[in-house]
Design brief:
Shape: globular
CATH topology: Macrophage Migration Inhibitory Factor
Largest sheet: 2 strands, parallel
CATH class: Alpha Beta
Oligomer: single chain
Strand order of the largest sheet: 1-2
Strand content: 15-25%
CATH architecture: 2-Layer Sandwich
Order of helices and strands: EHEH
CATH superfamily: Macrophage Migration Inhibitory Factor
Helix content: 25-40%
Number of strands: 2
Length: 77
């Protein structure tokens, strides 16, 4: 705990995906005080033509109020 799932378009190298997972683990452990052993990260590739139906509608639009970072807007600037 926690388990993070990152959904992204295909085309990133294994090195990029590994680096992303490592940075996510570092951010989770330093921010939430969890040990590295308790964090898991999965990367799920979704084809661009499937994005709306498989990601945007069920994960983004359906949970808009729960998003800490919404697409097209950066509240952290």
């Amino acid at each position: 705990m926690p388990h993070i799932i990152v959904k992204l378009w295909p085309g990133k190298s294994e090195q990029q995906k590994t680096q992303l997972a490592q940075r996510i683990v570092k951010a989770v452990t330093s921010t939430l005080d969890y040990g590295e052993d308790s964090v898991s990260v999965a990367l799920e590739e979704v084809e661009p033509q499937d994005w709306t139906e498989k990601v945007y509608k069920p994960d983004i639009a359906a949970h808009w109020g729960k998003l800490y970072k919404k697409p097209g807007y950066n509240p952290f600037k």
